[in-house]
Amino acid sequence: MRNTDTQKIERVKEAALKLIVSKGYHGASIAEIAKAAQVSDGYLYRHYANKADLVKDIYRSKLKAFHDFIYELLDADLPFKELLKRLITHLFAIAKEEPETVQFIFMMIHDHDFDYPHSRLLALRDICVQLLERGKREDVIGSNHKAEDVLIVVFSLPVKLIEARRKGVFTSHEITSVDVENITDICLNALR
Amino acid sequence: MRNTDTQKIERVKEAALKLIVSKGYHGASIAEIAKAAQVSDGYLYRHYANKADLVKDIYRSKLKAFHDFIYELLDADLPFKELLKRLITHLFAIAKEEPETVQFIFMMIHDHDFDYPHSRLLALRDICVQLLERGKREDVIGSNHKAEDVLIVVFSLPVKLIEARRKGVFTSHEITSVDVENITDICLNALR
Amino acid sequence: MRNTDTQKIERVKEAALKLIVSKGYHGASIAEIAKAAQVSDGYLYRHYANKADLVKDIYRSKLKAFHDFIYELLDADLPFKELLKRLITHLFAIAKEEPETVQFIFMMIHDHDFDYPHSRLLALRDICVQLLERGKREDVIGSNHKAEDVLIVVFSLPVKLIEARRKGVFTSHEITSVDVENITDICLNALR
Amino acid sequence: MRNTDTQKIERVKEAALKLIVSKGYHGASIAEIAKAAQVSDGYLYRHYANKADLVKDIYRSKLKAFHDFIYELLDADLPFKELLKRLITHLFAIAKEEPETVQFIFMMIHDHDFDYPHSRLLALRDICVQLLERGKREDVIGSNHKAEDVLIVVFSLPVKLIEARRKGVFTSHEITSVDVENITDICLNALR
DNA sequence: GATGAATGAGGCTTCATTCAT
DNA sequence: AATGAATGAAGCCTCATTCAT
């Protein structure tokens, strides 16, 4: 029962994410989400007060999953470059395996109706600070740099590549390990 | 008459942009846009076939204005670093003076209902290629880099800073000339 | 439940028919129809894709009910004249008991937006052919006549009387059995 | 000028009739009518108080033209059968040459928003009475018949044929002189 | 707990009509 | 006299949400 329940709500979240990415927040109706999740319309309202709440929950959990992954990386005792490479590899893997998730986060970030959750903001800050410290300790990040610089470099360059490829600005080739190396180097150079 | 007309439709475009940024495409109703522009609901439909058309027009024109500015920079015979600095300065100026415009473009880029106009894609490509050539000629961009790398670096780093400041990830300080220098240097390093 | 449901949708169809007759297709708004049927606006759209669909359904069902009645008459083994009399009596009865229905069908027939359903066209053809055969077999219809003549005579004369009375061209007296006799005779003469 | 004026308003009436027939009363917009008539939207309102007035005027004038034609026939001293034949020929001719006119009248007749003009009702009555008298005088109409019977027979049978052909109930062949003879005979038989 | 029928507010769009020019 | 830009009421339809079962 608890099991069924968890599966049901997971199906709802998955369906919501996919439909919102492909049709926008308002374009994805509760009826459609419920149908795709093989759940009744009313079922949603036993778990969430309204549509926005459902979306916020998905947003929060996706961000958390990403941050959790980074914390795991930080816990493993890796050289900075290796850490960065794995982080970028992970980002590209998500973009490949569940491109809707990346799209979804992009959409939410730019939708004023959905604030970036404060707890996530704190986590993001913390992550950047830790990365900066690691980088400086290993002398791969210049002493003049701040945590904000890390944020800007590490969390925008890989993401911009994903976007550029999806849009086919120059090419639509799948992202490969060559790209990982390239982006990692660019990031390292940027922060030198 | 012609004058009034131009002002009216400009008010509509401005109101639409602002409301869409603050409430999303679907959240900004025609009624609200028209009211904010002090225009009747029907007025819109004398100029655009529908709501999407209005938005596409704004999107296209904002992108074009940005690309036009860059082309002007390219035409002026500036050293690469100076060119880059001015480009970044311009981006920050827009973000400061009309933050909604930047937000609007972000939203559109991530909204599947609104394709990036093909003509703009070509312009963007062309701009990156020209920047790459300039950079290589002056030996400030490494010979291993491609136009895509320029795109990723030049068009994501400054923009990410704008976003980080707006969200107050680390600070909400206004962006200053110090930041311009900093971001310019990071970009140059990134492409070395 | 099922019961309520059927009643509801019947109320909608009835209200739609009446309002369309009195105000025309475009004159009868969904809001008005729904209100008259004591149903919400949205209710309609759980049963029909749109307004036109609702109207088509009513149109089709009214024509079918009429054709079904004639088929029953044809199945009963009546002399041609008696058959004709009953058909005409039925038409007048409908015109008296539910004048809107007759009006509705007239309106639909002359509205280019609503095609005469093909299945009904075939039924009408079939009915005329059967009537012709019967009449010829009993020698009350001249051998020179075609099914089209039957159509023209049987389905226009009674209907034109209904219309003339409704408009009060000569009189607005209710249609009586005397009229039935009269019209029947005129029809029989016409096809002799 | 007067000339131009008359032409203009005639163009408007013609455009209105055609558009109303093909798209319905509400489907034909003033803008479209004005455009088709190469006239400004506002021009209509210098001649008619509103859209309905324009339509009423067209309706009235089309009916009048038809009645005038019949009065001319009545004035010519023709045998009843010849008179009837010419009337029917005329009806078919209109149906062929300007089918929209016939359609238009049908639509108006069944549209409760547009009353049959009283003056036309009187004319129609008068016409039927005169036809009845003629027929009786020549002994081709039975003494038992009333003016209403004439109305029903003469004004519904030919019209129903036109409709049947247009809809292709049995055939879509153009109406020919053979049909004229046939319908004339049927009418005469009907009134014997 | 779960459903899904029903609601009705609100969205986009059309178009008859007005009126300044 | 004639225009046509502008209006805004009103129409059709969608969909988040509720609630009886």
What does the model show?
- The structure is a homotetramer of 192-residue chains.
- With 192 residues, chain A is mostly helical.
- Helix content of chain A is 74%, strand content 0%.
- Chain A has helices spanning 2-23, 30-36, 41-44, 51-75, 80-97, 99-109, 118-137, 147-167, 177-191.
- The radius of gyration of chain A is 19 Å and the shape is elongated.
- In chain A, helix 1 (2-23) crosses helix 6 (99-109) and helix 5 (80-97) packs across helix 9.
- Chain A folds into 2 domains: 1-48, Arc Repressor Mutant, subunit A (Orthogonal Bundle), CATH 1.10.10.60; 56-191, Orthogonal Bundle (Tetracycline Repressor, domain 2).
- The longest helix of chain A is centred in the first third of the chain and has 25 residues, at 51-75.
- The relative contact order of chain A is 0.10.
- Chains in contact: A-B, C-D.
- Chains A and B meet through helix 1, helix 6, helix 7, helix 8 and helix 9 of A and helix 1, helix 6, helix 7, helix 8 and helix 9 of B.
- The structure holds a DNA duplex (21 and 21 nucleotides).
